[in-house]
Amino acid sequence: MPDRPALGEFEHHVLLAVLRLGNDAFTAPIVEELERRTGPSVAPAAVYIALRRLEKRELVHSALRTDDSAGATRERRFVAVTEAGVAQLRDARSDLRSLWDGLDVLTGDDA
């Protein structure tokens, strides 16, 4: 078992959204990706706070970069998942799979 603290559900979601967005990950697209994939509305401030926590734990890193995709040049803080973040996600996925294993009554699996 890893020594690092487990990811909270929202942090887990944010990391996955950042991975999906690749080089285009900053707060607004992350919010949109989370809402598109999970359903409920997401407060941009919650994403911002989660990103700061994840950066403090070195699971993401951020850098200011000029974004001129919307026609107006603007500096934004783009984020990317670090190798440690990917490792944490892999561990979380493995743990969840292990917990689900054998719970056929919930999954509907016959095997």
Model description:
A two-stranded antiparallel ribbon has the order 1-2. It is globular. A hairpin with a 6-residue loop joins strand 1 and strand 2. It has 111 residues and is of the alpha+beta class. 54% of the residues lie in helices and 14% in strands. It has helices at 9-21, 27-38, 44-56, 83-100, 104-107; strands at residues 60-67, 74-81. It starts with 8 loop residues before the first helix and ends with a helix. The model has no long low-confidence stretch (mean pLDDT 88). It has five helices and two strands; from the N terminus they run H-H-H-E-E-H-H.
Give a summary of the structure in a few sentences:
Helix content is 54%, strand content 14%.
SSE ordering? HHHEEHH
Number of strands: 2
Strand residues, percent: 5-15%
As a percent range, the share of helical residues equals 40-55%
